[in-house]
Amino acid sequence: MAPTPNPEHGPDMPGYVWSAVADTPARDLFPGIRLRSLWSGANGASAYLLEMDPGSRWEGIDVHRPGPEEIFVVSGTFGDGVRDYPAGTFIHAPAGSWHIPQSETGCTLFLFYPEG
């Protein structure tokens, strides 16, 4: 028999948050690349949505510091400068690694930084 969940720990619990992408302002990072902040935790963890227009490319090298970057390709095809990743792909980029984000087709990425 499964334990009964504590009603105080449900969706009304303090710290339970949500974001609607349509209500989240976009910050232009580079031409054709926009970042939307979805959540930030007290320990530096954060979650974002990154939108890349077709033919866009990161200016310079994106180095992952202080911790890793977790990427989920929501739509389109994401390129890291070495290979392309279609929608539905998960990528773990360890701390200290780097890539050059780009997309020939355009893409939307969910980004999570567990350590900031």
Low-pLDDT windows of residues: none
- Which shape, going by the Cα principal axes? elongated
Number of strands: 11
N to C succession of SSEs:
EEEEEEEEEEE
Mean pLDDT: 94
| Structural class determined from secondary elements | mainly beta
Portion in helices: under 10%
Q: How many distinct helices?
A: 0
User: How can the largest sheet be summarized?
Assistant: 7 strands, antiparallel
Tell me the span between the first and last alpha carbons.
Answer: 39 Å
The radius of gyration computed from the alpha-carbon positions, rounded to a whole number of angstroms, is: 16 Å
Strand content: over 45%
Please outline what is shown here.
The protein is mainly beta. It has strands spanning 26-30, 33-40, 46-52, 56-57, 62-63, 69-79, 84-86, 90-93, 98-99, 102-103, 107-113.
What does this structure look like?
By secondary structure, the protein is mainly beta. The chain has strands spanning 26-30, 33-40, 46-52, 56-57, 62-63, 69-79, 84-86, 90-93, 98-99, 102-103, 107-113. The strands form three sheets. Strands 1, 2, 3, 6, 7, 8 and 11 form a seven-stranded antiparallel beta sheet that branches. The chain has a two-stranded antiparallel sheet with strand order 4-10. The chain has a two-stranded antiparallel ribbon with strand order 5-9. The N and C termini lie far apart (39 Å).
Describe the structure using short key phrases:
two-stranded antiparallel ribbon, mainly beta, 116 residues
